[in-house]
């Protein structure tokens, strides 16, 4: 009995489609294998480290914050989270696609066990608390994003040296 060894074929990627000629004497047009680009997530990144332990402990924030790279100022929709509140006529702030999103009624501070936020605007129309990355970085904090979370590091935190 004779045995034959049949080589196995391995496919690592799809073969390009055959070229198509639409006009005589033209260069061949080749199809580009395209894969759909990943859709941008519409889910905001949530704060996991901002829980109010100082100020009003009975009103702990319980992860109700959104780290927002497009937000120029910290803004909050619940005045009870703020300490040192002062009323101001701060005009209006746009959000949610509405140019007249909400009126700025005042500002205050949020003190947590790990992060402190100054000049937090109170906009009662907000459904989420928005924390500005640019304001955090202005205070020398580092903001690191991974696939699943956002970490805000204090200026004192030093990353280990990789050398």
Automatic annotation (TrEMBL):
Residues 66-139 form the Retrovirus-related Pol polyprotein from transposon TNT 1-94-like beta-barrel domain. This is Ribonuclease H-like domain-containing protein. It comes from Tanacetum cinerariifolium.
């Amino acid at each position: 009995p004779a045995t034959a060894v049949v080589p196995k074929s391995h496919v690592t990627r799809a073969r390009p489609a055959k070229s198509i000629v639409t006009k005589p004497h033209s260069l061949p047009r080749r199809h580009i294998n395209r894969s759909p680009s990943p859709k941008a997530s519409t889910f905001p990144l949530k704060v996991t480290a901002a829980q109010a332990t100082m100020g009003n402990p009975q009103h702990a924030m319980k992860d109700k914050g959104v780290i927002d790279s497009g937000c120029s100022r910290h803004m909050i929709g619940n005045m009870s989270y703020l300490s040192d509140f002062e009323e101001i006529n701060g005009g209006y702030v746009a959000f949610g696609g509405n140019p007249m999103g909400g009126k700025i009624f005042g500002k205050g501070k949020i003190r947590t066990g790990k992060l402190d936020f100054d000049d937090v605007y109170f906009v009662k129309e907000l459904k989420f608390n928005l924390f500005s990355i640019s304001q955090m970085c202005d205070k020398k904090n580092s903001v690191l994003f991974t696939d699943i979370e956002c970490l805000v590091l204090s200026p004192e935190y030093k990353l280990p040296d990789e050398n």
